[in-house]
Amino acid sequence: MAATNVFIGSIESLLNDMERLSETQNPDVIDSMISRLQCTSDTTNQLMHRSTSNYTALWSLYQHLLVFLESWQNRAWRRNHCCSVPHTVNNRIAPDEEETQGKVGRPQINVSGEQIECLRNIGFTWDAISVMLCISRSTLWRRCHQLGLTCSQRYSEISDEELDGIMRDMVAAYPNSGLTLLRGHLKRLRIIVQRERARLSMIRVDHINVCMRRMRVIQRRSYSVPGPNALWHIDGHHSLIRWRIVPHGGIDGFSRLITYLHCSTNNRADTVFTLFQEAIAKYGVPSQVRSDRGGENIDVAKFMIENRGLNRGSQIAGTSVHNQRIERLWRDVFSHVLQLYYSLFYFLEDNGLLDCELDTDLYALHFVFVPLINRALKQFHDTYNNHSLRTEHHWTPLMIWTNGILSSEHARETAVQDFYSSDNQDVNIEFFGIDPDGPESNPFDLLDVEIPPTELDDLTQQQLDQIAQINPLQPANNYGIEFYERVREIISRHMG
C-alpha cells in the first residue's frame, strides 16, 4: 500500500509540474516532461494489464497520460520544427481583393516573422530564404526591419572553456562521432558555433581520436530520386534481436531526413505501422516506400496501396541489398547508439547477470534499457537531421527536405508529379531508388523475425509497485546496470 501511495504521489507531482510549466519553452524541461510522462504511462500500462480490481481506473488514467504525452511531444515538435509546410504556404497568400482595393501596385506578399524565424533556426541563409519565399533579398531585409527581427548572424555566446566542457561530455557519450555529427549535437542543444571553433575544441578535448578518424575515408556513391517524400526507405535492425529488442527506422531517400527511429520489444506489423503513421503525421505521406519482404511491413504496404494506388510502385519490396539508404543509416545508428548496448548486454551475460532464455531477466532488461535506448535513438534522430552534409553544400537533411517541399509548393508541383511526368514514364520501378554501388546489407539482417512476447503474469501487486518506483531515465554512472539489478532482484525475491 505504501508503494502504491508513492506511485500516486509521483503522478500528482507530475500533474502539478505540468500545470506549473505549461508555458515553458525550455527544450530541456520539455524533454524531461516527455521522459517522465513516457515512464509513468508505461508503468500504468503494466499495472493495468496485471490488476483486475482497478482496471477501469487505471485505463482512464492511462488514456489521460497518453493525451498529455502527445501534447508535450507536439510542443517539442513545434519547437524543433516551428513551421509546417501548410502554415508556410498559407502565410504567403496575397491579401483579399477588399484589402487591396484602391491601392496602387502589386499586392504585398504576406510573409510572417514566425516563418522567417523558423527558416533561420533551421539554418538557411538569407539568400536561400529569399529564394524559397520568392521575394528579393532587399524585400526580406525590409520585412525583417518592419518586424523588428535582427539580420545579424546569431552565434551562441559561449566561452571556449564552456564549449570544451560540452564537447568533452559529448565525446564521452558518443566516442565514434566525428566533427559533423557533434556539431549536430550542439545544434540539437541550441548551441550554434562556427565550424572552426567546434573543430579546435574537438582537437583540444579529443586529439588522438581526431587523428585516427582522418585515416577512415568514406567512399561517396551516387543516388538519385526526384524530390522529398518521393521515396522512403524503411527497415528494422536486428543487432539486439538476441534480447528481443528491435529498432525500426525510416529515412527519406532524397534528403536523408530520418522520419522515424524507435526500438520495440516486438516485430509486429502493427508496431511498424504505428511508427509509420506518426511519421506521416509530421512529414506527409510519401509517394513510394521501399522495404524488404518481411511480414512486419505488411500493414504499411496495405496503407500505401490503398492511398497511392496499384501498379505504380507504391510499395516496392525487395532484398535488403537494394535498400541502401536505410542500410547506410543503420551503420551509423549501430556505431553511435546500438553498439554500446550490444556490448553491454553481452557483458551482463558473461558476468552471469543475464540469461537471454529467462523471461524474468528479459523483463527487467526491457524495463530498464528500452527507455534508455529510445532516448539515445531520439537524440541521434535529432542530431542526424541537423548535421551538415559536405556533398550537399553543408546543408542538413532537415534543410534539404524543407527546401524541397517549399520549392515544390511554390512551383505548384510535387515530387509525385515530377516523377510521373511524360519524361519519366520509362523509369523501371524495380530499380527505383537503388544505388548499384551502395553498401551491402548489415551483418545482422534477418527476414521474417518473430519475437515471442516477454510476459510475467504472476507478478504481485507489491512487485509492480516496487518496480514502478524505479526510473531508468534518471542519471546513472553505470549505464543503467544498477537499475537492472534492482528490478531483477525484486522479481527474483518473490519468485525464488
UniProtKB/TrEMBL annotation:
Pfam families: rva_4
SUPFAM superfamilies named among the record's database cross-references: Ribonuclease H-like
Cleaved signal peptide residues: none
The Integrase catalytic domain, residue ranges: 224-405
Entries under InterPro entries matching the protein: Integrase_cat-core (IPR001584), Integrase_dom_put (IPR058913), RNaseH-like_sf (IPR012337), RNaseH_sf (IPR036397)
Protein name: Integrase catalytic domain-containing protein
Species annotation: Porites lobata
